[in-house]
Amino acid sequence: MRFNRLYQAMAALAVVFAFVGCDDEFSEIGGEIITNPSNVEMREVEVNAYSQKVNSIQTNNLSDYILGVHNHPVYGQSTASLITQLSLSSENPNFGENAQLDSVVMVIPYFSTQSEESTEDNIIYELDSIYGDESFKLSVYETSYFLNDLDPDVGFEQRQKYYSDQQDAIEQNIIGDPLYVDEDFEPSALPFDSYELNVDGENDTIANNPALRIKLPVEFFQEKIIAQQGTDNLLNNSNFRDYFRSLFIKAESNGSGGSELLLNFSGQNSAPRIRLYYKRDSSDEDEEEQTRGTFTLNVGGNRFNTFTGEYPQEISAAISSQSSETGAENLYLNAQEGSMAVIELFPDEEELENLKNEELLVNEASLTFYVNDDILAGGDQPRRLYLYDLNNNTFLSDYALDASFNVANPDISVTNFSELVAEDESGKYYNIRITNHVSSIINNDAENVKLGLVIVPNINSVVVRGSQGQIGGSLMSATRGMSALIDLIPSVNSLAPTGTVLHGNMSNDEDKRLKLKIFYTDYN
């Protein structure tokens, strides 16, 4: 797994919009918290926790998209594929007389950084946000699957949602043979040059960062695009998207370990594209040679990820056996179309009432989730977990009040709330502080909501932030085929294939059993 500056471009999504800050909303929550008392005591409180399978998740509202094959030692094999619209860079294009294609190249940038070993004459890149280091089968198809902007089922008043479990429907609409197949595709960290026509009609050499770069069939695009000059098919993008409905970029296992990588759709310098290079008759009657031309199809508009793969039977059975009534020996967390956990604080109402009557001043409250290495046995360990209000599908006050927010480096951002995976003498663990949340329940009669626990590759991208870092709202994706409680899930959960297994509240290991630790001062 390689990611030097994990998903920095994803953080851009969180600073696009300006919103009213949340300081006033949470100004009173921490009023009774004592930061450095001298007589602190600690109490462990029982919690309830259980796993839930994520059957289907909305994936057409993401900033970037993931592609490839991932093999996990616990959760098995999964694949991530992509379906996308294309659009004309200019409507009703004129390619000139007798235009003949030379080549067609699709380019979708990766996330990459320059290596410290780079020199002025030799720039070396390292790929970020890539999981695994082996190959997979990559294919590209045209499909007749139409991607609506708006949902006809609600009177075209809401944006259409597309879900991760729709791959079967896409494959039923594939047209003809694949446009491209690579049985052993591996992402390359090598930069490449492209040749773009300047205003004088001459080629300029452009240096490009590493990207998914594949050559598509000239004959297909000659007929599909060039030969359609002057027809209604290219008159405008509305017509074009009905004519050339979508591309399906499909990942499949080839028997190796595979890899998954994040594709950069949000970069400002190099947009995903299909570039058509052609020759045409010169408009100058005195010139006999043909002149060169280019045309761009933008890889954009509506697009979404599909995920395929089945859990091993024993893992599916373990998850389905868990509920609020049973609790869990182990919590199964896996990103994408995977699984999550539900955490219930203070399941014993009498115990909660006793705590309220004691009027304790909370100094710190935290949940420590120990990794069950006996089950996990390797794999890409997630770097960060995220806990949120499951009843209201929003962030907790402790996330909002964390002053350690760092827009440039997610690894050191919001670490007072959610620490990166760490290790002590007992093993690997995640620590999440919910001091303000617990204090509000005990001292301010705040609602004791259920909490959702998921894997996130970038803690900054669970919310939308304004230009000054103020929070405008949670970034959530719809789910379907799940309980009414889990109708939304943090969108960023879709952008990493990592998984883990945690000790639950019923763990046989007492030292690693999930409990709520409350550090408090009692002045009564």
TrEMBL record:
InterPro entries: DUF4270 (IPR025366). Pfam families: DUF4270 (PF14092). This is DUF4270 domain-containing protein. It comes from Christiangramia lutea.
